[in-house]
Write a structure and sequence with these properties.
This protein is α+β, with helices and mostly antiparallel strands. The protein has three helices and 13 strands. It has two domains: 88 residues, Outer membrane lipoprotein wza fold like (Roll); 76 residues, wza like domain (wza like fold, 2-Layer Sandwich), CATH 3.30.1950.10.
Length: 208
């Protein structure tokens, strides 16, 4: 008898969780990613100086601030911010769509546009100075955008946004982010899930 009761309770819990998930997603067509593999890994490494290092596979996006250096060309060297579409306006060659590129890919794109019309075999480097902000929405005290901090978790992000409202669901969130194919997905996240630049953290209302 006790085994039957336990099995029935398990089925009820599973049903409740499924209903809650569907209710939370109602009205939002963004695909949900339930595979959380790798979500809790820090996206950045710490350098020996204590400063955060941007990983080699970091993908550039709107509002990232970069320093682009063309060696031997001070007039082509400076700080550049990607616009809302992810493009960077660069002297001589105009707008370069850097959205989704790694810094190395942007280096190659700029060098390719400079050579041979403007410079012969230019040496270009791209450094990310400031990564784009992340966003916290929903049941928090101060929803809005916040500057990205290395190794910040969903729980840390909620704290930056002033903490929960009394209606907040505090054990599970959703994160909207671009996947590797550039498509927007919604990820079922936990308090310890790492936030990435450009993420939107949604704190949902709990069910009473």
């Amino acid at each position: 008898m006790s085994k039957n009761i336990a099995a029935a309770s398990l089925r009820i819990c599973s049903l409740v969780c499924t209903v809650g998930l569907l209710a939370a997603c109602e009205g939002d067509p963004t695909p949900i990613v339930t595979d959380t593999q790798g979500l809790n890994l820090a996206p950045n490494a710490r350098s020996g100086s204590g400063l955060s290092a941007v990983p080699n596979d970091y993908r550039l996006g709107p509002n990232d601030r970069t320093r682009i250096t063309v060696f031997g060309q001070p007039n082509l060297t400076g700080e550049f911010v990607l616009d809302g579409g992810g493009s960077v306006a660069f002297p001589l060659i105009g707008n370069v769509n850097a959205n989704g590129m790694t810094p190395r890919e942007l280096q190659q794109a700029i060098a390719g546009k400079l050579d041979p019309d403007y410079l012969r075999n230019p040496s270009v480097s791209v450094e990310v100075l400031t990564r784009r902000p992340f966003y916290v929405l929903g049941e928090v005290q101060k929803p809005g955008n916040y500057p990205y901090i290395t190794d910040i978790t969903a729980l840390n992000a909620v704290a930056m946004a002033g903490g929960y409202t009394y209606r907040a669901r505090t054990t599970q969130y959703y994160i909207k982010r671009l996947d590797q194919d550039g498509k927007m997905v919604r990820i079922v996240a936990k308090p310890e899930t790492m936030i990435r630049p450009g993420d939107t953290l949604e704190v949902r209302e709990r069910y009473f």
